Amino acid sequence: MRWDVFFGSFPTLLSALPVTLELAVISITLGFLLAVLLAAARLSGLRALAALAYAYVYVIRGTPLLAQVFFVYYGLGQLDAMRNSILWPVFREAYACALIALSLNTAAYGSEIIRGGLLSVPRGQIEAAKAFGLSPTQRFRHVVFPQALRAMLPAYGNELILMLKGTSLASTITIIELTGQARILASETYAPIEVFLAAGAIYLGLNVVLSFGVRLLEGRVQRSGGFAMEG
Amino acid sequence: MNKTELPASQPGLAVPTIESRDLRKSFGAVEVLKGVSFKAYEHQVISIIGASGSGKSTFLRCLNFLEAPSSGEIDFKGRSLEIGGGRAPTRIEIEGLRRRTGMVFQQFNLWSHWTVLENIIKVPIHVHGVPRQQAVQRAMDLLAKVGLREKVNAYPASLSGGQQQRVAIARALAVEPELLLFDEPTSALDPELVGEVLAVIRALAKEGRTMLVVTHEMSFAREVSDKVVFFHDGRIEEEGPPAEVLRQPRSPRLGAFLKSVR
Q1: Residue A97: which residues within 8 A CB-CB, separation 6 or more?
Q2: What per-residue confidence (pLDDT) applies to A220?
Q3: Which of B99, B110, B111 to mutate to probe the A interface, most A CBs <10 Å?
């Protein structure tokens, strides 16, 4: 173990951290928005729409994220229709492909978490809200949402951690984020143990901060019964 | 206790608080309510009894549209909500009716993410626009009334069933309802907790509140209510003052039912 290489690799590795964070933040955000739509589709009561959303979730959850990244980057580019379409400038870029694959992936998992959270709210409590004349919007805002949020936060926190680590797969399609940078540095220094230990330490540090943040949020939601839902 | 002799004997003189005309409800091919016509006047306490599956709970839940009736008419305070024949009350009309009634459920259905106080003040604040301070003041009075002032900041999960049901009653009273609906309020309680809840409901009856109580508690029906309504197979089989209906039932079915619950 060469400690000088271990410590010396941090500045180079950290220079790639913004790319990792950007991939994570953007795909988590886009994925969440899509997840909300998917969950809404599944709970819409429209059978065709629900089936479509279910099929999507089923396929995404049943295939590896790495395969999805390859499919979007290498696979779609093989199609003439794609290369001739107006979307080609987007799908030509590895960075955009990584974002698309990551977002589509987390959306599937996220939608299941959101759906589970919404379904966890006891029917009787929704019925009580109805009986007292709350409108559908009021029922959602005051009764369903705060409880669903509470139920889904731990699982969603877990998904965020998986996504943060999932960004490392972007390195396989030429993107130099944290893992990609680590691979370059390892081949330059011939010290893969030191370099990947350092990279691992950075991921670990990020996830410690992330879990702490989620736990803080959980505590807050637990105490107040929703964020700022105070009357 | 018979404070409602007047409207009951002279129905022409008063507008019922709630009235149903030929109310029907089907779940798929099964008709659960087969034409129920019913009136409740102000200050009346009416016990609704019957075997399970007789339609009594469905009837109560149709009155505030928790179950959508298939056809018939419901008048609340003289305002008609007609169902069937291409007519259905609007969401606004239904919410309007619900906001003037209070309901107590068999399973309490308190909102578990809120404290006892929040359970009581949220509807007045968000639905009725009552200022927070006033809602809190009223909630404290109601909690004192149901004997749970010290539980004001507790969460429902930490309360016994009887305590939860008393909070649920306070929640229903907080909206100053013109009609209280009780759907088997003591059926989910351990036997030793039934008394404390019945005592609260009895006190409300004495105040002259208008109440419909679906119940299996025959002693409650006998002692507290002005009228007893017996449901059988989706219809009102017999109704009248408890002394008559419960002591000398005319219908053999009611006679058999009374024997079975004793």
Answers
A1: A69, A72, A73, A76, A91, A173
A2: 85
A3: B111
Does A30 have pLDDT greater than 60?
Answer: yes
Task: Provide the domain limits for residue A146.
Answer: 3-229
Q: What is the ipTM of this complex?
A: 0.90
- Give per-residue pLDDT as tens, A44-85: 999 999 999 999 999 999 999 999 999 999 999 888 888 888
Using CA atoms, how far apart are residues B77 and B94, in angstroms rounded to an integer?
13
Is residue B55 a contact partner of residue B231, using CB atoms and an 8 Å limit? yes
**B30 has which bridge partners?**
B27
Query: What is the count of structural domains for chain A?
Result: 1
- For the segment B221-248, the average pLDDT, to the nearest whole number, is 94
A150 chain-B contacts, CB cut-off 8 A: 113
DSSP-derived 3-state class of residue B56 = helix
| Residues of chain B contacting A132 with CB distance shorter than 8 Å | 98-99, 102-103, 123, 127, 171, 175
Q: Is the pLDDT of residue B78 over 90?
A: no
**B109 in contact with A, Cβ within 8 Å:** yes
CATH number of the domain at A105, please: 1.10.3720.10
Query: Packing angle between helix B132-145 and helix B161-173, nearest 10 degrees?
Result: 130
pLDDT score recorded for residue A228? 41
Q: So what CATH class is B14-100+178-189+215-262?
A: alpha beta
pLDDT class for A224, splitting at 50, 70, 90?
Answer: low
